[in-house]
Amino acid sequence: MAAEHLVPLSMQALAVLARVKRVEGADDLVFPSPFYPGKPLSDGTLNSALVRLGYKGRMTAHGFRTLFSTCANEAGWNSDVIEKQLSHEERDDVRGAYNRAQWVAERVKLMQWWANRLDEFRAAEHGVTQQ
Predict the structure, then answer these.
(1) What's the whole-number average pLDDT of the chain?
(2) Which of these, 5, 29, 60, 96, is most buried using a 10 Å CB contact count?
(3) pLDDT higher than threshold 80 for residue 130
(4) From CA 99, how far away is CA 25, in angstroms rounded?
(5) Whole-angstrom Cα distance, residue 28 to residue 14?
(6) Helix 104-125 crosses helix 63-74 at what angle (to 10 degrees)?
(7) pTM of structure
(8) How far apart are CA 92 and CA 98, in angstroms?
(9) CB distance 87 to 1 below 8 Å
(10) Picking from 11-20, 36-45, 97-106, which range would have the lowest pLDDT averaged per residue?
(11) 56 Cβ neighbours under 8 A, 6+ residues apart
């Protein structure tokens, strides 16, 4: 996309990025393409990995965005905040022309909630209860 998109990260995501940096070294891309220098991995590469992991027909790379949106909406988060986090633009031309809100403080909270929720899912899968 041509427009810059600010992406607040959870503490868990920042920890993963710090580990990747220690192992892989500094790079502008977190997931660089092994075939095209300076380019990121494609969604096709991620979808192929999901197929190899046994998720064919059950999940796609883009499906993670759907999962996040559905869970956040069901949990009662502000839909404007969710849509901004997904980099979706306002469809109402008048509202879109005037509303420049980035919702950064709420998006930081949202992404931390989501990371914590994913930790809860993982713990439940392994039979661990969280407090």
Answers:
(1) 87
(2) 60
(3) no
(4) 39
(5) 15
(6) 100
(7) 0.79
(8) 10
(9) yes
(10) 97-106
(11) 50
pLDDT at 131 > cutoff 70 = no
The residue type of 20 is V
Amino acid 83 reads E
Contact 13, 28 (CB under 8 A): no
Q: Indicate the length of the chain as a whole number.
A: 131
**Separation CA 117–CA 78 (nearest Å):** 17
pLDDT bracket for residue 76 (50, 70, 90): very high
Structure tokens at 35: 């075939």
Cβ partners under 8 Å of residue 111, min gap 6: 8, 9, 10, 13, 85
Could you tell me the residue ranges of all domains in the chain?
Answer: 30-59, 62-131
Residue 1: which residues within 8 A CB-CB, separation 6 or more?
Answer: 87
Q: What is the pLDDT of residues 16-74, one digit of tens each?
A: 999 888 877 767 888 888 888 889 888 899 999 999 999 999 999 999 999 999 999 99
